[in-house]
Amino acid sequence: MSLRKLRPLSHSLLARRYPPTQLTIPSLAMSTATPANGQPDGQAKPLDILLIGLGSIGSVYAHILERTGRARVTAVARSNYDMYTSGQVTLDTDKFGKHEGWKPYRVVKSQAEALEGDVTYDYCLITTKCLPDVTPTPKLVEQVIASNKVSAWSLIQNGLGVEQDLYQAVKHLETPIISSCAWIGIMTSPDGRTVTWRGFDKLVSGIYPPLAPVDQPQTREYSPKEIAALDLWHGLLKDGGAEISLEDRIDSIRFSKNVWNCSWSSIQAFIRGTPDTFVDFPEDQRRPLKAFIREVVDTGFKSGLLREGQYQYPFGGSVGDAESVAEHAWSKIFEMSVDKARQGIPPHKMSLLIDIEQNRPFEVEVITGAVLRLAKQHGLDTPHLALMYSLMKGLQLNIIKSRGEK
Q: Could you name the domain of life of the organism this protein comes from (predicted)?
């Protein structure tokens, strides 16, 4: 069964195709957690959401979920536990105003604490960076998986194939996985006390595993439980004020977004700077960089994850052919960077570059490695991509070694 064909699906269409009686699942309809301050007699308990990753993305989407009045978030915090529990964090947003002393419903120090007692969660929301070469997701949420206290998983992460390890770990439980890509401009101050959100937001969500690419045989059937989990997730985010669309092929949306991440995160990592660096480069010196981007794009088209006419998030329009997509991926970011530099405005740094500058492990496997593996799977020769991955992997290993993590 398909949630959409060529255009983004509306919530009302989903509701028409799958009436509420089909979507009601007890474990997703009512929370069993006991609130710290109690609930008025006769009032249904809100949905409980366990958040893994109380950073900038986690904070903003926790706030959106709780704005509905129908959800409460229990967040597992580590180094920032004291900061959040003592009311030292400010959410500064264009969309919802400024919230000083913001914190979610409950902040705990560990998964074990979050899972204590007779508690269940309607969703476990993961907003950490996906680092399978450092801490695979099943290891990260090992205690949550073992508890069997989660009715559905929801991932808001960058990269391609971020769901695979978790899916393999929980598929025997038949627990739905909702996978989401976010376009949102969020920054956290160096001291972690201010989360700033400027501009628009767009979240695209879908069930994992997704449908096969359009030109391939379809064998995937979504279960009523999966549809219920996606419908409830969509409703919560919509009611909280988020801009959200649903897609059958979330891996296709991930690849489209990852064209930009794989291309420019990798390039910025090695020049330790922004794309305006290349403003005085002659074309023959830009050519290898453009060839690298073209290999990324060709991988998408060969695998069926990119196709002409595909809806283009976040601003709309349709995907063109491989040549035009590759050229746009180069020119759009390059020209934006040059324009900002000429105005005296610092050009945008990819988050991966910021991680490297702060000597933190970065998303090499899901941003670059996943594309290379897909290219090999489809018999593509991608020497520039292969070189970039090898160099990125070496950089990652040096960071891990310097931190004493492996």
A: Eukaryota
Per the structure block, which two tokens stand in for 130?
A: 């996906």
pLDDT at 17 over 70: no
Measured from the Cβ of residue 282, the count of other Cβ atoms closer than 10 Å reads: 8
In this structure, is the dihedral angle defined by the CA atoms of residues 24, 20, 248 and 11, taken in order, positive or negative? Answer: negative
CB distance 222 to 171 below 8 Å: no
CA distance 116 to 46: 18
Mean pLDDT, rounded, for 276-280: 95
Nearest in space to 175 (alpha carbons), one of 142, 208, 204, 205: 208
Distance of alpha carbon 267 from alpha carbon 289, whole angstroms: 8
Beta strands in 61-211 (DSSP E): 71-76, 90-93, 97-100, 106-108, 123-126, 153-156, 177-188, 194-208
Determine which helix (DSSP H) or strand (DSSP E) holds 244, and give its type and residue range. strand 244-246
Is the Cα torsion angle 382, 182, 102, 136 positive or negative in sign? negative
**pLDDT more than 70, % of the chain:** 89
- What pLDDT, on a 0 to 100 scale, did the predictor assign at position 35? 36
Torsion sign (Cα): 338, 339, 342, 348: negative
For the stretch 336-394, pLDDT in tens is: 999 999 999 999 999 999 999 999 999 999 999 999 999 999 999 999 999 999 999 99
pLDDT tens for each residue of 316-341: 999 999 999 999 999 999 999 999 99
200: helix, strand or coil: strand
Instruction: Write out 31-91 in H/E/C secondary structure.
Output: CCCCCCCCCCCCCCCCEEEEEECCCHHHHHHHHHHHHCCCEEEEEECCCCHHHHHCCCCEE
**SS3 sequence of 365-391:** HHHHHHHHHHHHHCCCCCHHHHHHHHH
Would the pLDDT of 25 be above 60?
no
Q: How far apart, in whole angstroms, are the C-alpha atoms of residue 86 and residue 58? A: 18
Give the pair of three-digit tokens for residue 36. Answer: 């710290």
pLDDT of 397 > 80? The answer is yes
